[in-house]
Amino acid sequence: MSLDQTISTSTDIARPASRAGKFLVPVLATMAVALALCWPLVAQVWATGDFGDTDDAMRMVQVRSWLAGQGWYDLTAWRLDPPAGSLMHWSRLVDLPVAAFVKLFSLGLPPEAAERAARIAYPLTLQLALLSVMALIGRLLGGAKGATCAPVLVLLTGFMLGQFVPGRVDHHSMQILLLVSATGSLLAALDPARARMAALAGLCMALSLAVSLENLPFFVAGSAILPLAWAIAGTPQAAALRWFGLGFGGALLAAYGIFVPPAQWSAAACDAFSAVSLIPAVTGAIACVMLALATPRRSSRSARFGLLALAGLVTLGPMALAHPECRDPFFGLDPLVRDLWLGNTTEVRTLPQVLAIHPSAWPVLVLPSILGLAGLVMATCLTRGIERARWLALIPIVLIGMATASWIIRAESSLAPVIVLGGLFPALWVWRHFEARSKTLGLVLALAACLPFTGIGWALMAPIDDNPVEAERLARAAACRKASAYAPMAAIPAGLVFAPMDAGSHLLAHTPHAVLGAPYHRNNRGNRLVLDALLARPEVARDLVIGSGATYFAFCPGQVQLEATSARAPDGFAARLLAGEVPDWLVPVALGGEQYRVFRVLR
Q1: Residue 233 lies in a domain
Q2: Hey, how many other C-beta atoms are within 10 angstroms of the C-beta on 565?
Q3: Beta strands 597-601 and 552-555, pairing class
């Protein structure tokens, strides 16, 4: 069968061949297992109000400010480096569902309990949505059996232990859901009879870009699937290309108007949805529509590929020439802040850097990707027609995801639910091969066959030996993030707190105080001031702290940033503090807490 026949074949194994019950049972069963596994976190969030991550704390600060009357387009964190505040690069699109849950639970619960309930309900809702979308993709690729295996595969990636855990209200879970939904919609749209699904793919991509740009590498590969299918097959793929262009372009413009402040419409930002990303994206969407309309006049494949190459140059060329700095998402970040903050942040490290710290983690981080890619290649070689086209379409998305995850490990959580689909084909082969002997045996062996393609599978077979030094460091840092560590500080009069950046988000979330530093790259001035003081000689640090107008100075001995600055400057202010040397211009505030040491700044 020729490649154009492969793309344009209308045979679709994913036509609904099973009743709704057969779809819901595996989804709900898998969700029940996920809920049981993460139940301790449900109880912890409900009982303590702990924020496990700085971004979760900052998200709730943003949601609270909006619910308290801050403007829809005003994304400034006013208590971060006051009085000017710090303009966040985040989006109200994530605030919306979190705030909706808070308002819903406020109908029957006091404010603090309503917020905790929202922080539990939001990620669990997205868990269920992700499992459902994965089941749909599984059915698309492998019928009813695929709908059973796909949710299990994604469960075994360990997603419930990462971005979808109770209490996690940051944007990553929404981004993963939108990526998986866009991918499934693109695969469905390869069937000419379901071309309109391409508009849904465009909508998901546009909404994802409105949240953040972290899925951009995946979408560069994903958005090329339908244009390439059109260039190969011509007329059968023209409708999908047109629907994709209309859905993507229309949703982009709507999202830009709804979520980007009008004052920022012409601004060029490398770290958020702005004109830099909008213009090439809309240009590409328009190009898709024009290419689809040109199909009858461009019947030869070579002509279609020529037009596609020209469209690619017009779409991407101007942005690359006008904004080469945007190759660095942290462009403009102060070099010292980049070194001492990002250099000690695990999620922005490269894969080799992470493996250097945790060498025994390589089976968990590397083998699922290699085997998943091998599974996709196997499926492509052993299938035909539109089934082959769909398996083939996953490969470029996976390859660019693997490259991105090697460069920044945070992308691993987005890659995992996509690359795990490479395990679907081998699992289904095992199921079909053994079900003739026993349906139960076929199912059990198929589920077992999923394990090598998942992180949890390799964690069970090759447990990770934690680096004891790193484990101890992380435990000390975690103790500094407990809500109980901040409770005593919430009782003293509100003021400006000079503290390591690690504490900034939690101080804003758990206390009424303002802060100078927090782990956000746009807060250059406040973050640089904090680092300069921690690194400086004590007499210079005094001038910096007093000159900042700070009311209090606070630190927790286990904070990563204190350790990093102490190592950088052994005679500096941070090192002296950790050694127990407190200058006389810092007067202890008696709080009774065990973690934080708080001082009033004397002028």
Answers
A1: yes
A2: 26
A3: antiparallel
Q: Which of 204, 256, 309, 240 is nearest to 10 (CA)?
A: 240
Distance CA 230, CA 315 (A): 17
395 falls within a domain: yes
User: Range with the lowest mean pLDDT among 116-130, 192-206, 330-344, 413-427?
Assistant: 330-344
Is 341 within a domain?
Answer: yes
Contact 363, 458 (CB under 8 A): yes
Same structural domain for residues 395 and 259? no
Say yes or no: 277 and 405 in one domain: no
**240-271: pLDDT as tens digits:** 999 999 999 999 999 999 999 998 898 888 88
Taking alpha carbons only, the member of 125, 116, 81 closest to residue 483 is 116
The one-letter code for the residue type at 430 is V
The reply to whether 243 and 392 lie within a common domain is no
Between the CA of residue 480 and those of 32, 134, 230, 339, 473, what are the distances in Å?
A: 32, 37, 55, 22, 11
Note the pLDDT of residue 298. Answer: 64
Does 244 lie in the same domain as 217?
Answer: yes
**Domain span at 396:** 333-465
| Residues 182 and 164 reside in one and the same domain | no
- DSSP code per residue over 377-415: HHHHHH--HHHHHHHHHHHHHHHHHHHHHHH-GGGHHHH
Contact between residue 179 and residue 130 where contact means Cβ atoms under 8 Å apart: no
d(C-alpha 413, C-alpha 174), whole Å: 12
User: Is 34 domain-assigned?
Assistant: yes
* Count: domains in the chain: 4
Asked if residue 322 and residue 178 are part of one domain, the reply reads: yes
Residue 271 backbone dihedrals phi, psi, to 5 degrees: -105, 5
Tally DSSP H helices, then E strands, for the chain: 27, 7
> What is the per-residue pLDDT across 472-488, written as a single tens digit (0 to 9) for each?
777 888 888 999 999 99
